[in-house]
Amino acid sequence: MSVILETQNLRREFGALVAVDDVNVQIAGGTLHSIIGPNGAGKTTFFNLVSGTLKPTAGRVFYKGEDITDLPVHQTIHRGIGRSFQITNIFPFLTVQENVRLACQALGKDSFRLLRSHARFSDYLERSEEVLTRVGLAEKAYHVAATLPHGDQRKLELGMILAPDPEVLMLDEPTAGMAAEQVPELMDLVQSIQEAGGKTVVLVEHNMNVVMRVSDRITVMHQGALLAEGAPAEISADERVQTAYLGELYETSAEEEAP
Predict the structure, then answer these.
(1) Backbone phi, then psi, for 189, in 5-degree steps?
(2) Contact status, residue 45 vs residue 13, Cβ threshold 8 Å
(3) pTM
(4) pLDDT tens sequence across 153-176
């Protein structure tokens, strides 16, 4: 598989604090690649650097071989990188369909004509219907977004990211705040979107059971640096990772889930 995202000696300093310490990562196209680490490991800062939300102190970010380090976020989106945030990022007082339609429109030629009748945007409406069907919200298209349960709001946010059909989906703690019983459904949806569309998913996630189940490859960060990288089985067996992060807590959880 070819590399779609790459960082070279990526570094971010906040005064005397080195949040990301010369990290080199390659993410293969068409895979689900998770970034994990204990609190304060630098994974969210790294995620923000890769997505363009934050600029590095040093180092470079490449997308399909192009240096995108200094590009503003809207330009990285146009190139095919969509991202979510830890806090649900939707328009709460618009309908579900209007949320997705506006996400479609944002990358189209009508992006600044927000006051025109929605009926004139037939292409965007058609695309929004396709997306809502894909994320399982077609029957709630005319519900006000704020009235959706939290799990459905996360699906809506995923739909908004999918609207312009990006090649890379960057998901920051997508299961945060969700009830435990809702998590498998959302992650199954993410996996199916990734596999069916050949998309690349970069996932920051605290739920280790989720990470170990869905990931093709895992990068582990610790104190701002890259600690380990490999397939889920390699990471779960890595003593350095167990010491720094997983430890007895994960081992106990795995034993409890074993048949």
Answers:
(1) -65, -45
(2) no
(3) 0.86
(4) 999 999 999 988 899 999 998 888
